[in-house]
Inverse folding.
């Protein structure tokens, strides 16, 4: 049976680290990248007798996330203990939420594989604490525990199994990330682990009920999530084709090997013995509290998009591209405001910049240069200081070693040749060297002009002003 006879089903559990200043149950800093065990206290290291106090900001941020994803917000919610042992979890339980999550029954709209808008339902969003980190020492074989991350607040966003392809999963995750960034509750840096997704995958024949799911962990880029889903889909179809039964298990994705390995099967499925956290009071939210948060939500992608189309004259496609990522949208607005050429800024972003990011496997947030730099690049082209082909070289430099574009073109001697005499000299030289093209042009082959301009550009390594070249060639050819 062919692969087309099977349908893929994906459900995602996303953990996003909230960008509060302090941890969820103590006042330790949440800052990333500090020396090991410098952001710790008796509470987040689970000293006997230390008591947690819930950080109000965590509730506020989670409610924001719920509202921005069309969830209903529970007026009545609580924390629970999820019991398990692991060396990065000093209390031997994680404070999470079990049966009364803060947010439920939402959805996010994405584009499906046929270009139609589709709702991916969100089952729940709950708050919980992160665990510490184990640093394995390859040489001694030992592991060291760093508890800086223990107690950093997370929201877990659980989707319904509504996703049908790896491309849809990718769009869902990117949309979710952009929403969380727009409302400024998480910076969603996958490379720093502040946005992580566990991926549940099953396959079934199209006329049959859903298959058994496997859960994959340990993917740390959007690309590896897509690869992992494709791999797992193939693997499961092959198993079913062989007549084997898929058993529910947790798999670890190995990005280097490009395959999954079993972490645990259903036999060792953990019983977390959830029970209400006795050291914390219940969370009661008033309508007024929720309304106030609703009012505080910033401009969302949809409204930015409409503004770009109406006020700035962008196409729907361009507006979509920019607003799908807050990073793109922010740099676009800032650079556009400075150089006043919004269209050019948009073109740089959706062609060369997007391409380079893709080649380097970077996210838009990782653009290494500033909006000011981009605006200056656009202005230098607009006022004729450099040609757009030199502009591309400046962009490469901006990625390699960001500095002011003006400095770059000075250093490299890339200023455009716009001197009339210099242009004329080049034109005469090229005409002399390409007599056949001159004859062709005079015989009515207009294309010959393009060739001549191209030769002149080559001669000057892209530095000649193309408009002046064109005019000068026409003038000389008329003679
Ligand atoms: P657990 O805690 O066991 O991981 P959850 O209910 O938290 O269970 O998460 C289940 C996840 O699995 C959800 O994201 C859901 O959409 C997804 N899921 C459920 N059934 C299937 C299925 N048949 N195929 C793929 N994903 C599924
Ligand atoms: Mg799970
Ligand atoms: Zn602490």
């Amino acid at each position: 049976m062919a692969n087309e006879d099977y349908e893929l089903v994906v459900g995602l559990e996303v953990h996003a680290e909230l960008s509060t200043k302090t941890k969820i149950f103590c006042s330790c800093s949440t800052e990333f990248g500090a020396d090991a065990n410098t952001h710790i206290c008796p509470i987040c290291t689970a000293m006997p007798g230390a008591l947690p106090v819930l950080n109000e900001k965590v509730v506020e941020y989670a409610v924001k996330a719920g509202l921005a994803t069309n969830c209903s917000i529970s007026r009545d919610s609580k924390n629970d203990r999820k019991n398990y042992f692991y060396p990065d979890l000093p209390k031997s339980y994680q404070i999470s939420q079990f049966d009364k999550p803060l947010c439920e029954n939402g959805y996010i709209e994405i584009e499906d594989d046929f270009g139609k808008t589709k709702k991916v339902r969100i089952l729940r969003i709950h708050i919980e604490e992160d665990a510490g980190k184990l640093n394995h020492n390859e040489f001694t074989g030992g592991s060291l525990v760093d508890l800086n991350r223990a107690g950093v607040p997370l929201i877990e966003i659980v989707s319904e199994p509504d996703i049908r392809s790896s491309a849809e999963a990718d769009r869902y995750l990117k949309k979710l990330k952009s929403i969380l960034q727009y409302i400024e509750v998480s910076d969603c840096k996958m490379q720093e682990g502040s946005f992580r997704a566990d991926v549940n995958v099953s396959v079934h024949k199209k006329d049959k009920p859903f298959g058994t799911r496997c859960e994959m962990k340990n993917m740390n880029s959007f690309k590896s999530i897509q690869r992992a889903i494709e791999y797992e889909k193939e693997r499961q179809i092959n198993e079913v084709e062989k007549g084997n039964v898929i058993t529910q298990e947790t798999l670890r994705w190995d990005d280097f090997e490009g395959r999954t390995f079993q972490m645990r099967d259903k036999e060792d499925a953990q019983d977390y013995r959830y029970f209400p956290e006795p050291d914390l009071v219940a969370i009661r939210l008033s309508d007024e509290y929720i309304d106030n948060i609703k009012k505080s939500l910033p401009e969302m992608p949809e409204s930015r998009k409409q503004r770009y189309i109406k006020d700035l004259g962008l196409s729907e496609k361009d507006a979509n591209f920019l607003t799908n990522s807050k990073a793109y949208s922010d740099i676009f607005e800032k650079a556009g405001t400075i150089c006043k050429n919004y269209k050019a800024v948009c073109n740089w972003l959706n062609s060369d910049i997007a391409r380079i990011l893709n080649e380097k496997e970077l996210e838009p947030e990782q653009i290494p240069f500033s909006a000011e730099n981009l605006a200056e690049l656009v202005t230098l082209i607009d006022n004729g200081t450099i040609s757009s082909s030199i502009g591309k070289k400046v962009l490469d430099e901006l990625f390699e070693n960001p500095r002011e574009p003006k400095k770059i073109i000075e250093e490299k001697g890339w200023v455009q040749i716009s001197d009339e005499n210099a242009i004329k000299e080049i034109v005469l030289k090229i005409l002399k060297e390409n007599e056949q093209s001159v004859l062709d042009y005079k015989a009515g082959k207009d294309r010959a002009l393009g060739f001549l301009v191209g030769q002149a550009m080559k001669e000057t390594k892209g530095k000649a002003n193309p408009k002046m070249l064109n005019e000068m060639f026409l003038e000389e050819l008329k003679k």
